[in-house]
Write a structure and sequence with these properties.
Helix content: over 70%
Largest sheet: none
Order of helices and strands: HHHHHHHHHH
Number of helices: 10
InterPro entries: ABC-2_transport_permease, ABC2_TM, ABC2_TM_bact-type, ABC_2_transport
Pfam families: ABC2_membrane
Distance between the termini: 19 Å
Radius of gyration: 19 Å
Membrane topology: Multi-pass membrane protein
Keywords: Cell membrane, Membrane, Transmembrane, Transmembrane helix, Transport
Family: Belongs to the ABC-2 integral membrane protein family.
Length: about 260
């Protein structure tokens, strides 16, 4: 075995991998930044104007103001997941995953490098959509620190899930199945467009088992100051889930599961 000559952390390799992951989505900003903005605008147009024109307040908020944080977090979730999952799956399908596995990068450095891309993409999308949301609703952010915290947790959680999905999937069809049948339903059925308190049982209780519900609810608390569940409880649950998912990512990257022959 060779000797690491660059200290306990390969900062050069980590920075190079993180830069590559960031440049992947920056190079196609029309798809990664402009397209989510257009999608968010369409959601607002359909739900707020078509369905919400005569709708009463939700949780004491105008429907458009209630809807904004949910759409923002749904977009953050989808982009954070897409960044890591597409990177790993594309590299495996094209056969160049070896270019990532061969350099002297530990499992922790690989994990940090991939997550850097997801966090950067999610943060950029959140800033763009959040700015547009404030311009449309005319309302500011009630608790900025809470909002930023839940956006960061969403980027880490979905970035980690994207790594797991990318490792599991052997082709793009399998990745599409995971996105369509797992990620999209979880993000839509988590209080994005409605308050879960309006759901009948057992769907109301089942919603509280969905970690994405706490991400969206926490972000809504950060932006508007109201929430379905305790934001502190949501924060603790999200932290536990993020730690568990990232630990599993580290174990799989360390063992080379489904990535090394």
């Amino acid at each position: 075995m060779g000797v690491r000559r660059f200290g306990r952390v390969n900062w050069l390799g980590l920075r190079t991998l993180a830069t590559r992951e960031v440049m992947r989505f920056v190079a196609v900003w029309q798809q990664t930044v402009f397209a989510p903005l257009m999608t968010a605008g369409l959601f607002v147009l359909v739900f707020a104007l078509a369905l919400g024109r005569g709708r009463s307040e939700v949780m004491g908020l105008p429907y458009l103001q209630f809807l904004g944080p949910g759409i923002l977090m749904m977009t953050v979730i989808q982009n954070a997941f897409a960044n890591t999952s597409s990177s790993i799956t594309g590299a495996k399908v094209q056969g160049n995953i070896i270019d990532t596995l061969m350099p002297p990068l530990s499992a922790g450095e690989l994990l940090a490098g991939y997550l850097a891309g997801s966090v950067a993409r999610a943060g950029l999308v959140a800033v763009v959509i959040g700015t547009g949301m404030m311009l449309v609703t005319g309302a500011g952010i009630t608790h900025p620190l809470w909002a930023v915290t839940f956006v960061l947790l969403a980027a880490l959680l979905l970035g980690g899930l994207g790594i797991l999905a990318g490792i599991m999937a052997q082709k793009f069809d399998q990745m599409a199945a995971i996105t369509n049948f797992v990620i999209t339903p979880l993000s839509f059925l988590s209080g994005t467009f409605y308050s879960v308190e309006a759901l009948p049982e057992p769907f109301r209780s089942l919603s509280h088992w969905n970690p994405i519900f706490y991400l969206i609810d926490g972000a809504r608390y950060g932006v508007t100051g109201v929430s379905d569940a305790s934001p502190l409880r949501g924060l603790l649950i999200c932290l536990l889930v993020v730690v568990a998912v990232l630990y599993l990512c580290w174990r799989w990257l360390k063992s080379g599961y489904r990535m090394k022959p």
